[in-house]
Amino acid sequence: MNELNILALSGSLRAQSHNTALLHAARTLIPGGLAIDIDDDLGRLPLYNQDLDGGTPPVVVAEFRARIAAADALLIATPEHNASIPAALKNAIDWASTAPEGLLRGKPVAIAGASPGPFGSVRAQLVLRQVLAAVGAEVVVKPEVTVFHCDTRFTGDRKLSDPCTADLLRELLDALARKIHPYTAAK
Amino acid sequence: MNELNILALSGSLRAQSHNTALLHAARTLIPGGLAIDIDDDLGRLPLYNQDLDGGTPPVVVAEFRARIAAADALLIATPEHNASIPAALKNAIDWASTAPEGLLRGKPVAIAGASPGPFGSVRAQLVLRQVLAAVGAEVVVKPEVTVFHCDTRFTGDRKLSDPCTADLLRELLDALARKIHPYTAAK
Questions:
Q1: ipTM score for this prediction
Q2: Does residue B13 sit at the A interface (CB-CB below 8 Å)?
Q3: At what angle do helices A122-134 and A87-97 cross, to 10 degrees?
Q4: What are the per-10-residue average pLDDT scores of chain B (187 residues)?
Q5: Chain A: residue nearest B97 by CA?
Q6: Interface test with chain B among A61, A78, A90, by most B beta carbons within 10 Å
Q7: Pick from B13, B46, B48: CB nearest A86
Q8: Tens of pLDDT along A20-45?
């Protein structure tokens, strides 16, 4: 069996992001047969503008859409900005969803999020589920991975040190793998 | 009495946007003593990144924050992208809210939205209310201005031609003016 390819998107653009660190942790925890490629630079995409989205979209957009198309599934880690998802993440989803091929319809997606406060991005994750439902993605329902007080769960060099979070991430990736198999079988 | 200044933000970046056209219509319908300045280019702001938001934020961000600070109130017109608000609008709100002075706390805001479909951006407006509540803005509750089937309500050169929408916009601006007065009185 070929390796299945998961594209992991970080909703945070800052270099020291715990959400990006969560994706790096996921890479060490994946079940056999899966590979994770991390995109932690969604800020390179221009803000969505229908006028830019004609026959020849910007090169960075075309490259991003090709990466989404090539992925068997997505893993998204999101911080919470003002009770919702960051603009950078919404922007990436809007560009992916407006591709003529409908890139997110039926795509398996797992979501997680980390925040330094006591809520662990729960509100952002609810908004993210609503947006992903609108684009027709197949989102993993459980477990919910809400990494609250995230700065207590990583080492100084941003390695995941909390076994409970590691167990949850492993469970999330297993659930995502189970979603991929019926999807790829239907191709 | 000095004229009160409303900054109008369009959530759409495309040139032929009905949401931007709605803001131009509002300009012709405002009660005496108010002036509307339109910002229809939120795409000039970089995607929010905390690493860019130190002591010296990007010039375009500083200028945008100064415009928000100088406004007595905001009027926002939003399309709906994937059951939520456009990334460009979320991004603008995130940059305004993260200014050290807390620019949106207590700021009077009126919202409206237009879409060519039958829902008139209702879901986007619910998300927008949630985000504006998180930043502490004082959002006008009624009327709800959901301009569905918007392409039937403007002339070919994007002038508002529907008297019902014009009445609703006038009512919205009156409600916004009533919100501004207690706010400025408390300054």
A1: 0.92
A2: yes
A3: 10
A4: 88 98 96 93 98 94 98 98 98 96 95 96 97 97 97 96 97 94 55
A5: A82
A6: A90
A7: B48
A8: 999 999 999 998 889 999 999 999 99
- The first and second tokens of residue A129, run together, are 């589920």
Comparing CA positions, the residue from A21, A14, A115 lying closest to residue B49 is A14
For residue A40, CA distances in Å to A17, A22, A116, B49 come to 9, 11, 19, 12
> What is the distance between the alpha carbons of residues A9 and A38, in angstroms, rounded to a whole number?
6
**Tokens 């970046």 appear where?**
B13
- Please tell me the distance from the alpha carbon of residue A10 to that of residue A42, in angstroms, as a whole number: 8
Confidence at A187, pLDDT banded by 50, 70, 90: very low
pTM of this prediction exceeds 0.90: yes
Span B4-186 CATH architecture: 3-Layer(aba) Sandwich (3.40)
Q: Are B11 and B111 in contact (CB under 8 A)?
A: no
For chains A and B, count residue pairs whose Cβ atoms are closer than 8 Å. Answer: 109
Instruction: Determine, for residues A94 and B85 on separate chains, whether the beta-carbon distance falls below 8 Å.
Output: no
Over residues A76-87, the pLDDT tens digits come to: 999 999 999 999
Nearest partner of B26 among B177, B138, B186, judged by Cα: B177
pLDDT of res. B1: 54
Largest CA distance in chain B: 48
Segments making up each domain of chain B, as ranges: 4-186
Burial class (CB in 10 A: 0-12, 13-18, 19+), B184: middle
From residue B83, give the alpha-carbon distance in Å to each of A8, A25, A30, A82, B46: 23, 31, 32, 17, 23
Note whether B131 and B85 are within 8 A (CB): yes
